[in-house]
Design goal:
Number of helices: 5
Low-confidence stretches: none
Structural class: alpha+beta
Strand order of the largest sheet: 2-1-3-4
Oligomer: single chain
Number of strands: 4
Length: 116
């Protein structure tokens, strides 16, 4: 499987996708217009090892809801990601059985190496 979960309105996601210039065999899913399903999230968790690894602590809602001062557990991370798309750290690349989460330079370099 070759899939990217991203946000079409996120300039960082769009910039990364332009730089990577992915082939047409990649499936792009805009998580705002096509929300993540439970099955998709569970698959991402199976690759990443935890829901927390998929969770964005830089989300505006994370700060607004004061979640940093709460003790969140795996089920909470899952709940919030399914509840609102901004809680998913993005972009998420799934290339075969490997997952790459987020937009750090190191992560994008790993994605570039994987798509070569």
């Amino acid at each position: 499987m070759k899939k990217v979960y991203y946000l079409k309105t996120c300039s960082t996601c769009i910039r990364i996708l332009k730089v990577l210039n992915l082939s047409s065999d990649y499936i792009l899913q805009d998580i705002k217009t096509e929300p993540i399903t439970v099955k998709q999230l569970e698959y991402m968790k199976s690759l990443s090892g935890s829901y927390e690894a998929l969770f964005s602590k830089r989300s505006k809602l994370y700060k607004e809801m004061d979640l940093k001062n709460q003790k969140l557990e795996e089920r909470d991370y899952k709940h919030y990601i399914l509840e609102h798309y901004t809680f998913l750290s993005r972009p998420v690349f799934i290339i075969d059985d490997a997952i790459f989460i987020g937009n750090s330079k190191k992560n994008i370099a790993l994605v570039e190496a994987a798509i070569q």
